[in-house]
Amino acid sequence: MIIRNFAIKKSREEAKKEASRKGFIARLFSGKGREDIVMKTLYIENRLITFEITSPPPLFERLFRRGATPRKSKIEMIANGSTCGVSYYDRRGVETVESEVGEEEVQLSDFSDETLITRGNALARRILRRRVGGNLSLEVLKVESVFRPYHVAFFGEPREGEKDYYLPVAADGCSVKRTF
Q1: Is residue 148 packed enough to be buried (19+ CB in 10 Å), middle (13-18) or exposed (0-12)?
Q2: Which residues pair with 106 in a beta bridge?
Q3: Is 60 exceeded by the pLDDT of residue 179?
Q4: Distance between CA 100 and CA 120 in Å, rounded?
Q5: pLDDT of amino acid 90
Q6: Going along 21-70, which residue ranges are E strands?
Q7: Parallel, antiparallel or unpaired: strands 37-55 and 71-80
Q8: What is the predicted pLDDT for the residue at 28?
Q9: Which member of 48, 85, 130, 139 has the greatest number of CB atoms within 10 A?
Q10: pTM listed for this prediction
């Protein structure tokens, strides 16, 4: 299966070191040691949603200029298809590649595009209301599908019917952080 994904920048060995450092509690509950960590690479589907922002011209511009036109700009959001979490997306320094991966390594989106667009619209409005203010209108320009790679550390061999302790580590080197 050929997919468009973010480039992998972190090796499995680096992810295993990070998982053994961060996964102390999981190792404690599972009773497994550092050598019992099983690493697998998964690609989770995300959606890149591009919105066009239209805002009315400022008050002074409307008063003193006759042909005041609304301002237009764009904002991009990335929506995780697994958790329906949405965050602001900045393309600078992020590269996408096309890769051939197996069917068992791909996890498709659990949520519809409409749900992801609604969540992205709400977050974009919250960000823009704090930064710009005023009445804004948002329209969806395009929705793209891109897969994000994760190295998943399973503590012990995963078995069906048993509780698995795992820790996903982003293989693309990016992180999602709340800043507001």
Answers
A1: buried
A2: 43
A3: no
A4: 29
A5: 84
A6: 37-55
A7: antiparallel
A8: 62
A9: 48
A10: 0.80
